[in-house]
Prior knowledge:
Mean pLDDT: 92
Shape: elongated
Number of strands: 8
Strand content: over 45%
Structural class: alpha+beta
Distance between the termini: 22 Å
Helix content: 10-25%
Number of domains: 1
Radius of gyration: 19 Å
Amino acid sequence: MELIQSLLRLGETNPNFAISNSDDSDLLIEQKIVDAKYYGLASEERVRKVYRAKIWLDEEAREVKYQEVLADQSRRIGVWPSSKLEFKRSIFKGKVLFQKEKSVAFGFKKPLDPKSFGKVYDYSFDVETIRDPVRRTIEDAGWKFTQVILE
């Protein structure tokens, strides 16, 4: 199908995200926002954030259904001033109305190595940098773009 090929080409040429075939939808968009592991003075930190969008095509109605998924996971293991294990995970599925985020973190890339101190991640995320070019490609092909909450 021509629209699928256009979207796959968009994913190949866009530095912000990838588009691929999927088992549970027609296409899957993915952007790894951040994936970092680093160390504090007495802790180990892990941060992961991923944006995904599932796409289903209804050829008869010439409509594309688009469901967004934001997954966020962080972990902190610390020993000072007291022992601590902290784990957070959130997943949002549906229609993201607005999402802009910027974050920078400094830490040690290797435990107990003062020479490894520095910036461990620096990211900026705006959902519109993904959704807008996809929407334009779909609408330019004469299809309707519909955001959905449920699969």
